[in-house]
Design brief:
The protein has 172 residues and is mostly helical. It has seven helices and two strands. It has two domains: 2-95, no CATH class; 105-166, no CATH class. Helix 1 (2-34) runs antiparallel to helix 2, helix 1 runs parallel beside helix 3 (68-95) and helix 2 (40-62) runs antiparallel to helix 3.
């Protein structure tokens, strides 16, 4: 009977991970086609929340075992570890400057340092970052100035800054 629960856990993990990636891809494409401005990261977190609920409810409904609740906890921890990895993989692919530069070099859009001025405008980079922060609800533009809307990322930034000081990491 215990071997059966392991097979069921693996089955639900595969289904959960598959549906996370699939639902995220479908939702991103749907939002782009509908012309809605959105944050891919927030959309991914929302997809994950829905899948978490469906995964735990379906697991508890269909799995009959004495170890069902401890198995459900293991399932959720393992699934959310996958989500965490996928979130950072997506976030890195969506926002990392080095990845964009490598792709531009690979597609011959940048051949010399002078090409960077045409393809990689620093003003556009800052505008994109500010727009992303607005989409995530972290800042708002009001009365001609940016203002904080939410202090979560500020607290994270302060913790990272404190950690860097503790490790004596200096920014260039």
């Amino acid at each position: 009977m215990m071997e059966n629960i392991y097979v069921q856990i693996v089955f639900f993990l595969i289904i959960g991970c598959f549906f996370l990636v699939l639902s995220h891809a479908i939702m991103v494409r749907w939002k782009i086609r509908s012309g809605v401005v959105f944050s891919g990261q927030v959309l991914l977190v929302k997809c994950n929340l829905v899948i978490n609920i469906l995964l735990i409810l379906s697991f508890l409904a269909f799995v009959v075992s004495d170890a069902r609740f401890s198995s459900a906890i293991y399932l959720m921890l393992t699934y959310n570890a996958f989500f965490y990895m996928y979130f950072h993989f997506f976030n890195m692919s969506d926002t990392a400057r080095r990845i964009k530069l490598l792709l531009m070099i690979y597609t011959n859009q940048i051949e010399r340092p002078e090409d960077l001025n045409d393809k990689y405008n620093s003003n556009d980079m800052l505008t994109n970052r500010l727009e992303r922060l607005e989409q995530m609800g972290q800042i708002r533009f009001e009365n001609g100035a940016y203002q904080l809307n939410n202090y979560f990322l500020v607290m994270v930034a302060l913790l990272i800054s404190l950690w860097n000081k503790m490790l004596h990491i200096r920014k260039k």
